User: Which sequence fits this backbone?
């Protein structure tokens, strides 16, 4: 049942191109327009939405953080993203014009379920992004967009995460389409690139041997830091979470702009720091900033592991290890930049002798608080 792989996690990482393709299937028309038939929230209601609030836990929360950048950029609707466990215990301001998006692989996460109940009580419409047909969260939501990742068995989420991202992009683009905002060449180009994502993910998977080798060489490290900016920041958080849960190592993700506000004090000679570099072609200011961040940490002795686009030569002189990813629009980059981090954590944990499918103390779905 592991399809020839030693672990479900390896199988699920390898299945990502298909999972992403399945989540896109039938949702992008030949004219580039989206049809999300399952989103049974009337266009009239979607046009009236004046705020989006995303609630989720763990890896799904990281997908939500990335969705915020996409939703605000493509639709100009303000978007908040909050941990479901925080949201449900405060007094959030919601009304009929709020669209709440609950993201959950299992559809059974207690905190996310409670958050959506709380939202509906206040009249907000809830759209679930979920991987498990007929689970509680979609049943209790106004509408659901299923991710078609197939069953995810390994505790650490991989293919569910990539498909959550795809679903979030589709929702963001659909909102833009319905509301008529920002519809133009940029959006058409993004849709074209999104359709190409399965091929790009496959391409990344084909270049992972050096990442595995690097991961094995770091099995003795006591800590690994992850830095990113913009959508690379949640990717950094996700890379750190994977390493914590699988390798039981101290790992932390930071927004690179926060370095000088504290984290740079952690940098010491030999400390591995993974940096997710935004495309130099997109918002180039982001790229310039991160190149100086890499220089800063390297000057303090960090061992820099740089994830950067093909053809990005500016980072090369400062990278102790350079991991190449395909060229993608800024907002879609997480679909390719996350993959090396999954492989890295899985391989490092395996090198330490850990059972990656069933990390200690963790359960696949957290149905208690
Ligand atoms: C991490 C991981 C968890 C889940 C979180 C939410 O690899 O799998 O952080 O993402 O427990 O679970 P779902 O998506 O089922 O609500």
Assistant:
């Amino acid at each position: 049942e592991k399809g020839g792989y030693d672990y479900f996690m390896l199988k699920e990482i390898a299945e990502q191109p298909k999972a992403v393709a399945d989540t896109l299937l039938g949702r992008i028309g030949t004219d580039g327009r989206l049809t999300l038939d399952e989103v049974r929230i009337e266009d009239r209601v979607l046009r009236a939405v004046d705020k989006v609030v995303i609630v989720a836990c763990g890896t799904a929360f990281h997908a939500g953080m990335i969705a915020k950048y996409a939703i605000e950029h493509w639709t100009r609707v303000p978007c908040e993203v909050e941990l479901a466990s925080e949201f449900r215990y405060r007094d959030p301001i919601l009304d009929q014009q709020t669209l709440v998006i609950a993201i959950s692989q299992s559809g059974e996460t207690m905190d996310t379920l409670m958050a959506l109940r709380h939202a509906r009580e206040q009249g907000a419409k809830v759209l679930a992004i979920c991987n498990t047909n007929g689970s509680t969260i979609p049943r209790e939501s106004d509408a659901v967009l299923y991710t078609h990742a197939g069953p995810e068995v390994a505790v650490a989420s991989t293919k569910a995460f990539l498909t959550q991202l795809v679903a979030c992009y589709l929702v963001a683009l659909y909102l833009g389409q319905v509301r008529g905002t920002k519809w133009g060449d940029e959006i058409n180009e993004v849709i074209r690139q999104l359709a190409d994502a399965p091929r790009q993910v496959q391409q990344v998977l084909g270049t992972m041997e050096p990442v595995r080798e690097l991961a094995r060489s770091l099995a003795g490290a006591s800590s690994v830091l992850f830095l990113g900016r913009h959508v690379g920041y949640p990717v950094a958080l996700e890379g750190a979470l994977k390493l914590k849960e699988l390798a039981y190592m101290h790992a932390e993700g930071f927004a690179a702009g926060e370095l000088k506000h504290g984290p740079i004090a952690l940098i010491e000679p030999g400390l591995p720091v993974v940096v997710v570099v935004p495309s130099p072609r997109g918002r180039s200011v982001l790229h310039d900033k991160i190149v100086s961040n890499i220089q800063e940490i390297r000057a303090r002795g960090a061992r820099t592991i740089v994830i950067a686009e093909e053809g990005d030569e500016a980072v090369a002189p400062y990278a102790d290890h350079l991991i190449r990813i395909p060229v993608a629009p800024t907002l879609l980059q997480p679909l390719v930049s996350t993959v090396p981090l999954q492989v890295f954590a899985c391989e490092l944990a395996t090198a330490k002798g850990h059972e990656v499918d069933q990390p200690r103390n963790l359960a696949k779905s957290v149905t208690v608080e």
Observations:
- The pocket of fructose -6-phosphate is lined by residues 57-60, 104-106, 109, 112, 156-157, 241, 245, 365-366 (CB under 6 Å).
- The chain has a mean pLDDT of 94.
- The longest strand covers residues 98-104.
- Residues 241 and 251 are 7 Å apart (CA to CA).
